[in-house]
Backbone:
């Protein structure tokens, strides 16, 4: 009889393997160099067989063992935990062990309204030159609005990035 064909894996399995490797490194089972080497291999893995050698010398958790308790050959979907009303992330300062509050997901309403108003201002400015160049100084309105809209968008992107990082950050275990 022929050997079974290794199953292809997707991004979720590669991410789970990377998470397991981070856990093994955090408890001291892997050095930084070993972790980097194994993480690169895990992120480039195409099949489940590509992941097996990365965890051969490590205890659980490892890929392929998470479904063993259910007895089902099919993966079980686990819904993500609901975020708490006030969530906290790890402190950014090495001197402080207190947890820092995570800002709520920013609203893009102000940025969207400002972008719309800026677009309308540019359209009116162009229309002004088509009709007649009498109000040339109106060029400053869309320029100022564009500048403000750009700053708002940049701040919104920064806050969204911080929010996403905070959502992916794992809280330290309670001691």
Residues:
């Amino acid at each position: 009889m022929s050997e079974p064909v290794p199953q292809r894996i997707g991004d979720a399995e590669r991410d789970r393997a990377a998470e397991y490797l981070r856990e093994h490194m955090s408890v001291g089972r892997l050095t930084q160099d070993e972790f980097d080497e194994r993480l690169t291999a895990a992120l480039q893995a195409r099949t489940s067989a590509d992941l097996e050698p990365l965890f051969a010398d490590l205890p659980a958790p490892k890929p392929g063992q998470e479904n063993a308790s259910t007895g089902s050959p099919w993966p079980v979907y686990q819904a993500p935990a609901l975020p708490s009303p006030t969530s906290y992330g790890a402190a950014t300062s090495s001197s402080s062990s207190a947890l820092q509050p995570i800002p709520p997901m920013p609203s893009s309403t102000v940025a969207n309204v400002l972008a719309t108003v800026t677009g309308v201002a540019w359209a009116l400015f162009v229309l002004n030159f088509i009709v007649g160049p009498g109000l040339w100084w109106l060029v400053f309105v869309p320029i100022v609005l564009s500048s403000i809209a750009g700053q708002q968008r940049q701040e919104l992107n920064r806050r969204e990035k911080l929010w996403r990082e905070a959502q992916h950050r794992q809280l330290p275990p309670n001691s």
